[in-house]
Every structure is written in structure tokens, then in C-alpha cells.
């Protein structure tokens, strides 16, 4: 996957080859959460993550609820309907990689040189 920041929108990462887009959503998001719109091959889902920063360990953690994501995905009518197992093997890794890319690009360069990182963990 070749992700790039959209030059017109710093809150958006795109991969034109694989038809992937991730947009960070800011409005009315509860404290401790980060929300995204994720599009892959024409299917868009709202992604809610639990977000935590660990200063002593120097990383930001995003927790995805895969069952919640699957519920949103399974109500769509994508070009290629995935089973739950395929969804976990294809959709979730692409989403995870996009979140890491987009959120790492938002970290201050100073923090990156100090060793800060972004981690995404999945539940279920």
C-alpha cells in the first residue's frame, strides 16, 4: 500500500491504487476517542477508536473494536463482499496501516525524533 497525505487536506490519507481513503473526523468527538471515515474499494465506514497517549512509554494507542466495524461493513453492499475472516485479513490491516500513517504524520517532528510512535490494537 502506498499512502500519501492529500496536499489539500492534511487530515486525509489516500492510496489511489487500492482505492483507499482515511479521513480524520474532528467535530463532536468525545474525549478519549478518535473517529475516522475509512473508504476501501467504494465502501465507507465510520471508525470509532479509543485513544490514549502514554507519555512514559512514548506512544499513542488506538483501539479498534473489530465487531463494531464488521457491523458497519456488513450492512454495506461492496463490489466484493468479504466474509468476516476475509474482512479481518484484508480490511482491518489496511485500516490499521492507514491510521498509523495518518496519525504519525500529525505527530510533531520533534516527538518523532524523541521516539514517539503510533500503535493500533484490535479487540475481538
Describe the fold and architecture.
The chain is an alpha+beta fold and 124 residues long. It has one domain. It has three helices and seven strands, in the order ββββββαααβ. A seven-stranded mixed sheet has the order 1-2-3-4-5-6-7. β2 and β3 form a beta hairpin.
Spatial ordering of strands, largest sheet:
1-2-3-4-5-6-7
Please provide the ordered H/E string of secondary-structure elements. Answer: EEEEEEHHHE
Q: How many separate domains?
A: 1
Number of strands: 7
Strand residues, percent:
35-45%
Shape: globular
Radius of gyration, in angstroms, nearest whole number: 14 Å
Attribute tags:
7 strands, single chain, alpha+beta, 124 residues
In short:
The chain has helices spanning 66-74, 84-106, 109-113, and strands at residues 4-6, 9-15, 20-25, 33-40, 43-54, 59-65, 117-123.
Tell me the layout of helices and strands.
Elements: E1 4-6, E2 9-15, E3 20-25, E4 33-40, E5 43-54, E6 59-65, H1 66-74, H2 84-106, H3 109-113, E7 117-123
Parallel strand pairs: 6-7
Antiparallel strand pairs: 1-2, 2-3, 3-4, 4-5, 5-6
Amino acid at each position: 500500500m502506498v499512502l500519501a497525505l492529500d496536499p489539500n487536506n492534511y487530515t486525509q490519507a489516500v492510496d489511489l491504487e487500492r482505492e483507499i481513503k482515511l479521513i480524520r473526523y474532528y467535530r463532536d468527538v468525545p474525549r478519549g476517542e478518535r473517529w475516522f471515515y475509512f473508504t476501501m474499494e467504494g465502501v465507507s465506514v465510520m471508525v470509532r477508536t479509543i485513544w490514549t497517549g502514554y507519555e512514559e512509554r512514548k506512544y499513542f494507542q488506538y483501539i479498534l473494536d473489530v465487531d463494531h466495524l464488521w457491523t458497519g461493513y456488513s450492512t454495506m453492499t461492496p463490489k466484493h463482499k468479504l466474509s468476516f475472516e476475509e474482512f479481518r485479513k484484508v480490511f482491518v490491516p489496511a485500516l490499521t496501516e492507514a491510521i498509523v500513517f495518518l496519525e504519525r504524520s500529525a505527530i510533531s517532528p520533534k516527538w518523532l525524533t524523541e521516539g514517539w510512535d503510533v500503535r493500533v490494537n484490535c479487540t475481538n
